[in-house]
Amino acid sequence: MRPIILLLFATFALPTLAAVPDERVAWLDRNAVPLETCEAGHGFEDMAPLVDMIACAQIVGLGESTHGTREHFQMKHRLVEYLVEEHGFSIFAIEASTPEAHRLDAYVLGGDGDPRELIAGMYFWTWDTEEVLAMVEWMRAYNATHDHKIHFTGFDMQTPDVAAEQVADFVLTLDPGRGQEIRERYASIVKATGGSAFGVVTYTFPLEEARGHTVRFKCRIKTEDVTDGYAGMWWRVDGPNRKTLAFDNMRDSGPRGTTDWTEYVVELPVAEEAENINFGFLLPGQGKAWFDDGSIELDGEEFDPKVFDLDFENERLVAGHYSNDDAYTASLDDQVAAGGAASLCLASRPKAVGTPAAQEAQIEAEAIQTELEGRRTEWLAERTEQEIERALFNARLVTQCMRMRARKIPGYRDLAMAENVVWLTEQHPDARIVLWAHNFHVSRQNGAMGKHLDEKFGPAYLPVGFATATGEYYAMSRSSSDKIHRLSPPPPASFEAVFASAKPSIFALDLRAAVKDSGSSGWILEGRPFRSIGAMAMDKQFHPQRISRLFDLMIFVETTTPARQLD
Length: 567
Prior knowledge:
alpha+beta, Jelly Rolls, 3 domains, 22 strands, globular
């Protein structure tokens, strides 16, 4: 009887998925536009039926169901090419802080620079991928051979550092005394609400010992909940006029998330013309990182370990170090060590959001913005209107960031991003704009950027959602160092389960074609489970949504893989 009992148990434990009604499958097969590939560079013949779907759109928002899905990124790249080449779109804006993203504009227009460094300069690992790099390189190649140009920018406002720096630099050229004062005021409010983007411990290496040699800097690193960045060692060699001769900060190889003790190595040459050497440990982003058992070799020979306390066994913190910001702590930890009794711990402080200090910072940022806007007419005698508008926009970005950190307005980030997109349309009234962000941000969900844009632009705004059924995705994890995660199977009643029943495995679907109470298409208008994952791995991946209210078009790719990080 045991086999029978086990068989019955297995039958109840593993129910088969309910079949999708034939009429729904038939409707999908009739209305879905099959797309041959996600990869760019294959022409647009299969996309021809999309022309009527986007005819009236001035702004197209391209979503993604996770922040780490390769095929969604590839398809968005392909759609960007289609919108630029076939429909004259001329501005691309990504979910990244505006001035940091805008630095890529000069590159795609043919300027100098390393696109990998420029992409990394947008801070978030979500965009630091092979797929985004491929799109950037296509933009540059396209602009080199066409009079009609595509520009690169952003619309987010989560980091104020570069915006504040550019405002102060602009004012310095017109009023040096006032510019320096604004720089100091901005530095004060940024520090009060979270400080700079990284914590660092810095040493100065004896120059004559290292000139003409190859340095090998080793250390063991352990991390806990490191997000929006990584932990690492760094080494920089400066030459005449502070020119960087050699530099490595482990941006592409440093540990993220939660990891156990692992040895890492930084190796690079020190030129004879070197005039300064700094090195140390750093933590961009949030979380904790421990460093222990450090050592330095010059041409394979160990450098005197007594000069620097890199095993962190002394009572003092570290010999000859300095740290850059009160937003991070640097301390000896006698509870965590790879070897010996203690290690160096770098840890981020909680950001001062929703506190009186954050609210005071908001007031100060608003005061600076009001003051600068009052000088617009005065500055027109010496600067172009475009230069002035860019500086004032950066001042508004700082204010937006401080308002978000003050937490007085629920959902303020999406409202601010929508305001920044509106600003783009005001600066370029004849331009057609394509946005790149998560499904939530481009959607018409209450509080989302797309909802604000829909209220402002109506049919001129076209939100495009993305969905997938099976595969893997890239994301950070709060519980492990794993970065590759499996997509949960779609529940039988989910939109993805129905989409997967269609004949084409990759397709575009106009959700506006669904008819209420129709047996074949009415399900499109119903509330059903729909997948949504952000930058962090999630066990609960599906949530009830009425996607017909959120998006006009849906791009479905049945099986997807993780986005490929540039490291």
